[in-house]
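Subject: design request, 230 residues
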């Protein structure tokens, strides 16, 4: 369980400082892989500094202020809801995005809070001038365990490069929600899915430390995290 949370933490901790860097640079001027590789060392240093000082990192604030601005939550929600997205009214779509965002905030915050000292290595980016959709590939080097791949699907938007999916060991974090979301729509329509997400967020908010780690876990990496929440 710890290795999975560390993997997810590594996948998002690199974005924390990147968002700050991106605010001071033209998005198209800096390659996504260069940005992410450059800030990884800095973010890890911050986490280690806080740990050495005995001061816990405010991961919720870190996620809210630094990481989330880099995500396209509407795109992520649209992928997760799939064809049922077209059945939703604009108001329902907005509600789905808001609730899904809250769910992912707690997922990322819980994972980031368990990150320790794993190393992240970025792979050469296959990138051509004019590309608007790229895959940034990286690997998490774990002591005494197999290396874990962490890949980011990113697109160039008017607001800069945005992440719309993360793949851990080849498994899409966003796509793992599809089955549950589809079942909720079949059972209660779009409003049923909104209610499901709302209920899960209320349950998570009532837990002292956010999402709890004690739920029984299926074997696939990302599904283990998703099914803790849904």
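Subject: RE: design request

Done. Sequence follows.
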């Amino acid at each position: 369980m710890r290795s999975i949370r560390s993997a997810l933490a590594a996948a998002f901790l690199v974005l924390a400082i990147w968002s700050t860097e991106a605010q001071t640079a033209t998005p198209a001027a800096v390659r996504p892989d260069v940005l992410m590789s450059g800030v990884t060392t800095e973010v890890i240093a911050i986490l280690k500094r806080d740990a050495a000082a005995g001061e816990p990192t405010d991961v919720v604030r870190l996620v809210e202020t630094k990481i989330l601005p880099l995500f396209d939550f509407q795109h992520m929600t649209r992928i997760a809801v799939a064809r049922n997205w077209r059945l939703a009214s604009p108001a329902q779509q907005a509600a789905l995005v808001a609730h899904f965002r809250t769910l992912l905030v707690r997922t990322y915050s819980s994972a980031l809070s368990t990150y320790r000292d794993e190393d992240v290595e970025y792979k050469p980016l296959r990138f051509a001038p004019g590309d608007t959709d790229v895959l940034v590939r990286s690997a998490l080097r774990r002591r005494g365990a197999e290396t874990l791949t962490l890949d980011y699907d990113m697109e160039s938007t008017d607001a800069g490069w945005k992440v719309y999916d993360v793949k851990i060991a080849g498994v899409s974090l966003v796509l793992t929600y599809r089955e549950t979301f589809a079942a909720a729509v079949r059972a209660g329509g779009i409003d049923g899915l909104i209610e499901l997400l709302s209920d899960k967020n209320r349950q998570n908010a009532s837990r002292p430390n956010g999402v709890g780690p004690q739920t029984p876990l299926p074997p696939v990496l990302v599904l283990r995290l998703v099914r803790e929440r849904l």
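The chain has one domain: 2-229.
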